[in-house]
Specification:
The complex is a heterotrimer. Chain A is an alpha+beta fold. Among the domains of chain A are: about 305-495, no CATH class; about 500-530. In chain A, the strands form four sheets. In chain A, strands 5, 6, 7, 8, 9, 11, 13, 14 and 15 form a nine-stranded mixed β-sheet that branches. Chain A has a two-stranded antiparallel ribbon with strand order 1-2. Helices cover about 25% and strands about 15% of the residues of chain A. Chain B is mostly helical. Chain B contains eight helices and two strands. In chain B, strands 1-2 form a two-stranded antiparallel ribbon. By secondary structure, chain C is an all-alpha fold. Chain C has one domain (about 1-120). The longest helix of chain C is centred in the first third of the chain and has 18 residues, at about 30-50. Classes of the chains: A alpha+beta, B mainly alpha, C mainly alpha. The interface of A and C includes residues 15 and 142 of A.
């Protein structure tokens, strides 16, 4: 009986929808900005059973797309820095989940390809390029963890025997609805870096999918509504703005159409130029030393999603009273401990650190020796100084952690974490086994011993630009113990540590002595005049 | 009782406007320096800059006035009677001795005043002007191609500006006090307001600085 | 027009015979992103601040939401739900609500369908379960 009513309701809703469509049909419908309606393409009018099948259909028209993508870091996950370090996700280590090595099936769901599960992945395959992950407009495209970036088109149990059923996605519908990239598509990976929403960056999380003006003045869904690509202006699938070679200082003018530029289009200056403050011109006097972001992103993780500020792997492996892996949550329900990952410290509305940055980032790689000491190992660090002429003061997130290393060989550990096997740390909680597999994967020696080093990594803060009214005020930095208290090499009016101590002492002494002198003199006069009365 | 018209209208306006501006700039300046919080840094900085331009404007008028009226001669230093004046302020003032100097229109400052004001006008003020303007236009300096100024560090400019501010502060304290040393505590201040100075004793021979006859009139 | 209606009728009958999930999915073909913004900036805004705590699409199933939306009752039946997506309502709150201002002229049914699309998509058993953010 209830079902019957419900069905009737559904039927009613159908009629309603069709009526709505009829009403909005010809006149009120917006002019389509695309010249193509992908539902009309023969190549897409078929059932797809896998991602590569869709890509093949895409390539039947967009013949050069995969070749373009093969040239990108999004595909290669490898980058040779100007300093000669071999970087990219394939090679770097971090202090979140630490490394993709031996964990490809889990981590590489964020690779723009299908099937990168180990070293045998074919980087020359055109059909392995995943078009949909960037061009989906339905919001329903999913790449489940553990499947090496492959998609699920028929309901399946995963991991096998877990009882967890992964819902299939409708590739045909998704393929027919492709469009431009959006905050949702870019965010599908970039919001979730480090293993979860907001974990890694602090200035990027799912709150930016549909932000309000206070959270991001450019991406404001009801205002300017920027897509990521509005700034990361992409041509031929080459997305500018990589974090491996950031533009710390842009002295160029605002880009105008019709002119050719070789400079990075994602910088603030590329739109706003060098003297953006019209009302208070004095503020323009700051742009030679201070990155725009330093004042205009007063705090990060402002959208209600917490970011990880610290991750201590060394405490992992604890079991609860029930014998099951322990999980702890804070008052807000955020997970702050899991047996698989150790302890976390989370942060919301975090005040950034500030430091000189000239665009060069140095990395500690697997091949580098590390020492256990009071000083944290810098997983990466920003270079720069007040005097090098290339640096600006940048807001950064400092991620702190403790992670596994081999105390004998003095190398950071590659840890096999993910995977339903008898060595993955997340299922077996055995460091030695997990590190042995990890180290073997890069051909590095392993002593059999695992210890932990404290580490630090640095992340630029550049998204979540607040409206001007929420930007920092003068006194935030022009003060003692202000935001820039620890930034060396620059005179900041109002910061006591910049004062010449002798001058202040001498100056106040002079004033005090003068005062004392005249007071004494005056007292003398008063006494004399009283005596004379 | 004799009255003498010493301070002309512009001179009085200039003096009090300058006094207000300097006190205000000391107040805002030391807030910018980070000594205390009063207006808030942003407001202090804005007010300080506005006051600076006002003061510069006032000074331009004052300089013009000094030269067109010949009043600049009031600041020519002299050593004549300087010992007597010093002696008066250190001893005589306590024994009710008469002031060895009598102001006249042509010589309104005693030798110590002349010297002190000259130091203010030729040393402290220019130091504040120059360092202040360099401070204000620091960015344009560093961008300039003139090696000498381009190499200036903001810290050094600020140091000079602050030092000059301390000197001005010390001057202000001394000046404020000395304004109470007339024949009554408010005599000098009243004179600075009305322009007229009461002189309760007949002018004496030693008053002049060779600049003319005593100008006091019997009333 | 007639043809479209009838074909849709046929389709819906077919869907009735098939599964509820599929039918709900079909009903949801509005602009989910516009629906998301309206849901966040109008529905959630008020529910979080005044009306008894936050609401999130993923706290109900598609069937629950479909039933709720079709019943068209708000505040325990005191008022019709659709009032809150009506142009009249938007005109009333647009001085203080940017979403209402921006979508002031969207036809009622269209906007209602957008919100519905988002809610069904974000339902517990929807294609992309959505929390409150």
């Amino acid at each position: 009986m209830r079902t019957g009513i419900f069905m009737a309701a559904v039927l009613a809703s159908m009629l309603l929808v069709s009526a709505a469509h009829a009403a909005s049909d010809p006149d009120s419908a917006k002019l389509s900005k695309s010249t193509s309606d992908h539902t009309k393409f023969k190549a897409l009018q078929q059932e797809f059973n896998s991602g590569p099948e869709v890509t093949k259909a895409c390539l039947s028209c967009h013949t050069e797309a995969s070749k373009q993508l093969h040239k990108t870091e999004h595909w290669k996950w490898e980058y040779r820095s100007p300093e000669g370090q071999l970087l990219g996700k394939k090679n770097v280590i971090n202090n979140f989940c630490t490394s993709i090595r031996t964990n490809e099936a889990a981590c590489n769901i964020c690779h723009i390809g299908y099937g990168w599960k180990d070293d045998t992945f074919d980087f020359t395959s055109e059909v392995n390029v995943d078009c949909l992950v960037c061009h989906d407009t339905t919001g329903n495209y999913k790449k489940p963890a553990g499947l090496a970036g492959n998609v699920v088109t028929k309901a399946m149990e995963f991991p096998p025997g877990s009882g967890n059923i992964i819902k299939p996605i409708d590739l045909k519908k998704i393929a027919q609805a492709v469009g431009k990239t959006s905050r949702d598509t870019c965010g599908a990976c970039h919001f979730y870096g480090g293993g979860g929403d907001g974990v890694k960056h602090g200035d990027m999380d799912s709150s930016l999918a549909s932000p309000d003006q206070a959270l991001d003045v450019h991406m404001d869904a009801l205002g300017l509504n920027f897509a990521c690509a509005t700034c990361h202006m992409t041509e031929g699938h080459q997305v500018p703005g990589s974090r491996y070679a950031p533009t710390a200082q842009d002295k160029g003018d605002a880009h105008v159409r019709g002119k050719e530029y070789t400079s990075n289009p994602t910088t603030c200056q590329a739109c706003h130029g060098q003297a953006p403050h019209k009302k208070i011109a004095k503020l323009n006097d700051h742009t030679d030393k201070v990155a725009c972001q330093a004042c205009h992103i007063p705090k990060f993780a402002r959208g209600g999603v917490a970011t990880k500020m610290s991750w201590d792997w060394s405490t992992g492996g604890k079991m609860g009273p029930d014998g099951k892996p322990l999980i702890k949550k804070d008052a807000k329900g955020h997970v702050i401990y899991t047996a698989a990952k150790g302890d976390f410290i989370l942060g919301e509305n975090v005040v950034p650190d500030y430091q000189w940055f000239n665009g060069k980032v140095g990395y500690t790689l697997f091949s580098d020796k590390v020492e256990k000491s009071d000083q944290p190992t810098r997983i990466n660090h920003f270079e720069g100084s007040a005097g090098d002429g290339k640096s600006l003061i940048w807001p950064v997130k400092i991620m702190r952690g403790k992670q596994a290393f081999d105390p004998v060989n003095k190398r950071l550990a590659v840890v096999h974490t993910a995977g339903n096997d008898d060595t993955g740390y997340w299922t077996n909680f055995n460091w030695e086994k997990a590190v042995a597999v990890g180290m073997a994967s890069i051909g590095a020696p392993f002593s059999g011993k695992v210890d932990f080093v404290t580490t630090e990594s640095t992340w630029p803060i550049t998204h979540m630009v607040a409206p001007a009214k929420d930007a920092l005020r003068c006194h935030d930095c022009h003060a003692s113990n202000g935001r820039l208290e620890k930034v060396p090499g620059i005179y900041i009016p109002g910061r006591a540590s910049d004062h010449a101590g002798w001058l202040d002492t001498a100056g106040w002494a002079l004033a005090a002595l003068t005062l004392l002198g005249v007071l004494g003199h005056g007292l003398g006069r008063v006494i004399v005049s009283k005596r004379n009365k | 009782m004799a009255r003498i018209y010493i301070f002309k209208r512009f001179e009085r306006f200039w003096h009090w406007a300058q006094a207000a501006l300097i006190i205000f700039m000391l107040l805002t300046g030391f807030e910018i320096h980070g000594t205390y919080a009063l207006f808030g840094w942003e407001k202090a900085a804005n007010l300080h800059t506005t006051a600076a331009w006002t003061l510069i404007g006032l000074w331009l008028f004052a300089i013009f006035w000094h030269f067109t009226t010949g009043e600049w001669k009031q600041y020519i230093p002299t050593t004549r009677n300087i010992i007597a004046v010093m002696k008066y302020y250190s001893v005589g003032i306590f024994t009710d001795a008469p002031h060895p100097f009598r102001a006249t229109q042509l010589s309104k400052h005693n030798p110590l005043q002349r010297l002190a004001y000259l130091v203010v006008k030729l040393f402290i003020n220019p130091l504040i002007w120059v360092s202040g303007l360099l401070y204000l236009y620091y960015n344009d300096l560093t961008a300039s191609k003139i090696a000498g100024v381009a190499g200036l560090k903001l810290g050094s400019i600020a140091l000079v500006h602050t030092a000059a501010a301390f000197m001005m502060l010390a001057f202000l304290i001394g000046h404020l006090y000395l304004s109470t040393t007339g024949h009554t505590p408010l005599a000098h201040i009243k004179a600075m307001i009305s322009g007229w100075e009461d002189q309760d004793e007949p002018a004496r021979e030693l008053t002049g600085n060779g600049a003319g006859a005593p100008a006091a009139r019997a009333s | 027009m007639t043809k479209k209606l009838s074909s849709l009728n046929v389709l819906s009958l077919c869907l009735l015979a098939c599964s509820l999930v599929a039918s709900a999915a079909h009903a949801a073909d509005g602009d989910w992103k516009r629906g998301r913004v309206y849901y966040q900036k109008v529905c959630t805004e008020c529910h979080t601040a005044k009306a008894g705590g936050p609401i999130a699409p993923n706290t109900r199933t598609m069937a629950d939401w479909t039933k709720y939306l079709n019943t068209d009752k708000h505040a325990k039946g005191k008022e019709p739900l659709k009032m809150y997506v009506s142009r009249e309502y938007r005109a009333n709150i647009k001085a203080t609500n940017k979403a209402a201002e921006k979508y002031a002229d969207v036809p009622d049914e269209q906007l209602f369908n957008d919100v519905k699309t988002f809610m069904l998509k974000g339902a517990k058993d929807g294609d992309s379960p959505a929390s409150c953010l």
